[in-house]
Each structure stands twice: as structure tokens, then as C-alpha cells.
């Protein structure tokens, strides 16, 4: 086996570099060059704050907001005679499926319940109608429709408790049927608005003639609306709200 000899490195001069040193082999000067590894503790410099990348499209979380207050409940009555459109009025604007207490009309009601010549009504409200509608974030209306027959009149006192106003629905062809409702709210001192329901899109009398026939003062609003149309019912209810607000403002000043 041949022996292997180490290369003959030149002898380093006195005070010079050894021939097999890294400085002599790679041409670097001792003490100069990159220092690998950490030679001391890192500088006490806080890291920069985190920022979302501009191209990520992410948005910062929204600031905490207190929960919104629930809307103020307002109770309104939808009243009037038999077959004038109270149930239709509640159902046209309610944002929930309206609660109705309809019962089939039988032969026992012949000569007692006059539904009018223009009505094809086959059911009648025996207790009440109920629906609700949100006006805005601060106001929500709860609508209670009263029964129209005189034999259910004992329920009106309970339904009117806590109400701020009423819409008295009138059929212009049967004005006699609405007198009990008008008398009730005048005695109770509850603000009310008379709404003339336009059956088939028209009324039998002018509004001025209806006001004179009902003997209501100018302070009682008289409006024409269509119980089948949501926007028309909304406008009539806003008049009731304005009437109730005017009454509350005057009572506060007194």
C-alpha cells in the first residue's frame, strides 16, 4: 500500500501566516470579514406595529357599538261598523301573518248583521284582529281590529286600554254603521281619525258631505284610503300617529 503524504506547505515567516491557515489559503485578513452567529444580546428595539397588507383587501374590525334600543311599541285600534274593511286594513299592512278570529256567517245573522249590498263577505270577526308593522328603528305599531257587531261591544273597553289612537273605518254608503265607533272614542277622549274606505276605488259622497253627515269637528282628521292597498293604509295610520302626537304634546304643555 502506497503511503500518502501531506502536501508540503511553505513555512510561515516569523510573525507571518502559516501556509495552511484559512487566511493564507483564501486570501482574507484576520479579524476582517463576516462574523457568523450571534456574538451578543440583540438590541432592545421594539418591533414595528403590524399592518395589514395593502393588497389583501381585509378591513379592520368595526369599532364596538352599544346595542340599539328596541323600538317603542305603540298600540292603535282599527274600529268601525260591520263589514267596513277593518280586517282587510290590518292584513294589508301587517308585517306578520295577521291574527284573525273569523267565523262563518250563518242564517242566524240574517236581519241582524247587515254586510251591505256591495260586500261579498261570508265571515265575521268575533273577537279581534291583530297585526304589527315597524315604522322605523324607533317605532313599531301594534294594530288591534275591533269586532263590528254591537253584541261584541263589551270587548271595546278592553281593547282600547293602553291605545294611543284609533282609525275609524267608514263605508261612505253606510254612514249609520260608524256612529257607535265615533261616539265611543269621543266619550273615551281617545284621539281618532275617520278613514273613508274607497270600495271599488271610489266613495259615494264627497269628504265635506261625510264630515257634515257625521257631525265631526274640524279638529278630527278625515281621510280617504283604500283598505286593500298597503301604502294607502300606511298613510292613514301616519295621520293617526300625528294626531296622537299632537294630543300628547298638548297634554304635556298643560
Furnish the topology, listing elements before pairings:
Layout: H1 22-26, E1 72-80, H2 86-93, E2 102-104, E3 123-125, E4 129-136, E5 139-145, H3 156-160, E6 165-171, H4 179-188, E7 192-197, H5 207-214, E8 222-225, H6 230-253
Parallel strand pairs: 1-5, 1-6, 6-7, 7-8
Antiparallel strand pairs: 2-3, 4-5
Report a brief summary of the structure.
By secondary structure, the chain is an alpha/beta fold.
Describe the structure.
- This protein is α/β, with parallel strands linked by helices.
- The chain has one domain: P-loop containing nucleotide triphosphate hydrolases (Rossmann fold).
- The chain is built from six helices and eight strands.
- It has a six-stranded mixed β-sheet with strand order 4-5-1-6-7-8, with helices on both faces.
- Strand 6 (165-171), helix 4 and strand 7 (192-197) form a beta-alpha-beta unit.
- The longest helix has 24 residues, at 230-253.
- It is elongated.
- The mean pLDDT is 78.
Shape: elongated
**Adjacency order of strands in the biggest sheet:** 4-5-1-6-7-8
The biggest sheet amounts to:
6 strands, mixed
Unreliable segments (pLDDT under 50, ≥5 consecutive)?
none
Query: Roughly how many Å apart are the termini?
Result: 127 Å
> What portion of residues belong to β-strands?
15-25%
Succession of helices and strands: HEHEEEEHEHEHEH
**What is the number of domains?**
1
The averaged pLDDT comes out at: 78
**Number of helical segments with 4 or more residues:** 6
CATH architecture: 3-Layer(aba) Sandwich
Given helix and strand content, the structural type is alpha/beta
Can you identify the CATH class? Answer: Alpha Beta
